[in-house]
Amino acid sequence: GRVQNVLPSMEAAFVDIGRGRNAVLYAGEVNWDAAGLEGQPKRIEFALKSGDPVLVQVTKDPVGQKGARLTSQVSLPGRFLVYVPDGSMTGISRKLPDNERSRLKKVLKRVMPEDAGVIVRTAAEGAAEEALEADVERLKAQWAEISSAAKTASPPALLYSEPDLAIKVVRDIFNEDVASLIVSGDTAWTSLSAYIGAVAPDLADRLRHWVEPKDLFAEYRVDEQLMKALDRKVHLPSGGSLVIDRTEAMTVVDVNTGKFTGQGGNLEQTVTRNNLEAAEEIVRQLRLRDIGGIIVVDFIDMVLESNRDLVLRRLVECLGRDRTKHQVAEVTSLGLVQMTRKRIGSGLLESFSETCEHCNGRGIRVSLTADHHHDSPKSRKPAGFVDPAEAAARALAASGGVDAVEVEPV
Q: Which of 109, 110, 119, 301 has the highest CB neighbour number within 10 Å of its CB?
């Protein structure tokens, strides 16, 4: 990209990356080693000037009126690890057991180049040394291609983009825990079989080519589940419900008892059971819908503090199975649970919808004219709805993405 302007007061620079709206690069994401300040304070106005070319990577897609977020600390995700060119730190996911962490440390000392760092993903558990070394070499070659292209490109220019959706899903999700991967379409089959043959030949026998005349997504009811995942209301098995609303600032989840009246016991027990069930479903919906950013959950009020703690523990326990980085804050004085979840890309709703041209996304049409009050319901045109079924394959990305890990220096 090319720097458009630097704002010291915001500790940020705005960069033209050739996508219309400028993207933002904050001081905390600047590669200071490459900035060459030598003795000067690490301030963004010293590292970047208007008109400077800068090698950046998009970390967050544009959302609403907000531009994309950038970093100049480039990282390249692989199957088992994330390669960090010019990095000095090597880290291993804290989710791995201690004995496996020790084994991986020894392997990394043998296979890692001196001029790069890595972050080992949880997927590396049990991986052979040869597989890890192959991952490093593949990413090292990829970085060499990017560096070479950067020397001849005229910014703003795209040097490298994420692989297509099918490859990305396989890279980030397909492992020994998956019984089979069913692929429809000759193009996708050729691409995936070649990729798996090169990257994970041990999983090649789990790849299955769908050649039946019936639509694959119809056979496995994927379209049906996708439409449910795009609905504002989620019904719980017991009769309660969740209402999920997205705003530019945050996502709000409201828990309702609905038809759930309990099976004996008192009101407190009924409400607690409903909240426990809701806590599990909320985590599932966050993953399914790929919801990121600030999330506020309004559970049904409980009188006993022990029950409130029980529901919060259940929520945290379920979040422990989520690979995406998250953090649960304290419960507010109004009983709201606040949490954050790293936004990897645009969520499911954003991917399969567009702003209504009638209400501009508000969900209502405001009218101050007297005639409006006399309109019959039949005369009013409903706001438009986008049917996402034709692009249903993209739903696989909702649970994909490189898993976020906590790391510590090796």
A: 119
Lowest mean pLDDT among 72-81, 204-213, 237-246, 369-378: 369-378
Which pLDDT band, with edges at 50, 70 and 90, does 347 fall under? confident
Are 117 and 50 in contact, with CB atoms under 8 Å apart?
Answer: no
First to last CA, the chain: 33
* 95 and 120 Cβ atoms separated by less than 8 Å: no
Residue the block writes with tokens 């989520």: 322
| Half-sphere exposure in the Cβ direction for 92 (13 Å, CA) | 17
Alpha helices in 153-266 (DSSP H): 165-173, 186-199, 216-219, 222-229
The number of beta carbons lying within 10 Å of the beta carbon of residue 227 is 14
Q: Identify the structural domains of the chain with CATH numbers, from first to last.
A: 2-71 (2.40.50.140), 77-157 (no CATH), 165-211 (no CATH), 231-341 (3.40.630)
Are 271 and 301 contacting, i.e. CB atoms less than 8 angstroms apart? yes
Classify residue 272 by burial, with Cβ atoms within 10 Å: 0-12, 13-18, 19+: buried
| Token representation of residue 278 | 């809701």
**Distance separating alpha carbons of residues 28 and 72, to the nearest angstrom:** 10
Q: For the full predicted model, state whether its pTM sits above 0.90.
A: no
Q: How far apart are CA 280 and CA 286, in angstroms?
A: 10
